[in-house]
Amino acid sequence: MTFRIRIVPGGIAVLLLIGCLFAAEAPAAEAPAYADNVVIIIVDGLRPDALKQAKAPALESLIKRGSSTMKAQTVTPSRTLPAFTSMLTGLPVETHGVDWNEYEPQRGYLKAPTIFEIATFNGSKWGAAFIQKEKLLHVTKQDRRLALHVCSINEPGCTAKKIAADVINAYKTATDSTKPSLFLIHFAEADVAGHADGWMSTPYLRTVEDIDRAIGALLKGFKELGLYEQTTFLVSADHGGHGTTHGTTMPEDMTIPWIAAGPGIKAGYEIKQPVSLMDMPATVMRAFGISDYYVEWKSRSVEEMFKPGTAAVPAGAGRPSQ
Questions:
Q1: Is 4 contained in some domain?
Q2: Taking the CB of residue 307, how many other CB atoms lie within 10 A of it?
Q3: Which residues share a beta bridge with 185?
Q4: Residues pairing with 85 in the sheet
Q5: Range of 252's domain?
Q6: Is 12 helix (H, G, I), strand (E, B) or coil?
């Protein structure tokens, strides 16, 4: 700080301060404590140990930026449709009742509320779901606030790369009043490779690398849209696999990765608490900073991964100033 004294007419000494005497230097802007957007990425059939053998720089970047565990657990039976239902509802299979694993339109839609409905009703969040298996139509219920995109794994060209591009294009083309803030992105190719060539086989690991490149493109797209810093990314799987199958209670089938990165989440942190795929919906609401909701589920927020001082606040109470 520089001081100068100048004598003005009348003999009054005036103290001039070059700089700022009383105002402290403006602090750097703090990172947001809550997410404006949440992106759920489910890599169908992804085993945690595949991330050690495959080259997955995009997922590694999220692990370094956020919190993770390679010991999370799916539900029984460890199959796609029951697991997705539990992931979206926070309910065990015996409660939500979706214990089949094929697309059977005559069964209709899931009756229990999903995270999309809870987030819409309690947080006015619009949603978008991008799925690669028709059977997931049972649990992604049609709603005017949910944009549903189906690109079947059985269709030529429906690759992870295309899905990632579809997500970014869908956001760009949505009107301002209908832009989604809660995304569900399903990548199915690793599961297909596992059934065809075996889990942990070379083709399976190559497919995991393809999906990682698609996730990298997705992250880049969010950065270009200016959404990255305000978005929480939650990456997991519906099940693992062994040999060319899954569905058992074997650790290879049940153990899944859980990766979370975004506002208010600890960086480079290994989660110690037990984590279930059913914890996804409560964790989504926690990431949004919403606590004023009621739903009967078994979902529990993975509280350990959040930074201290970022507790969710009741809707309408306002968030702490950043």
A1: no
A2: 14
A3: 41, 130
A4: none
A5: 33-305
A6: strand
Query: Rounded to an integer, what distance in angstroms lies between the CA atom of residue 114 and that of residue 198?
Result: 32
Q: Which amino acid does the sequence have at 232? A: T
**3-state DSSP helix/strand/coil percent for the chain, to nearest 5?**
35, 20, 45
In angstroms, rounded to a whole number, what is the distance separating the alpha carbons of residues 11 and 260?
A: 67
Count of structural domains within the chain: 1
**Rounded (5°) CA angle 102-126-121:** 90
**Is residue 281 in a domain?**
yes
Beta partners for 128? 147, 183
Per-residue pLDDT of the chain (322 residues; tens, 9 = 90+): 433 434 344 444 443 433 443 344 444 455 678 999 999 999 999 999 999 999 999 999 999 999 999 999 999 999 999 999 999 999 999 999 999 999 999 998 899 999 999 998 887 899 999 999 999 999 998 788 999 999 999 999 999 999 999 999 999 999 999 999 999 999 999 999 999 999 999 999 999 999 999 999 999 999 999 999 999 999 999 999 999 999 999 999 999 999 999 999 999 999 999 999 999 999 999 999 998 888 899 999 999 999 997 765 544 444 433 3
Cβ atoms 11, 5 nearer than 8 A: no
Residue 120 · residue 126 · CB < 8 Å: yes
Could you tell me the two tokens for 294?
A: 């009621």
Q: Output the domain CATH number for residue 298.
A: 3.40.720.10
Residue 5 domain flag: no
Q: Report yes or no on 316 lying in a domain.
A: no
DSSP secondary structure code for residue 265 in this structure: B
Q: How far apart are CA 223 and CA 152, in angstroms?
A: 27
Rounded Cα distance, 108 and 106, in Å:
5
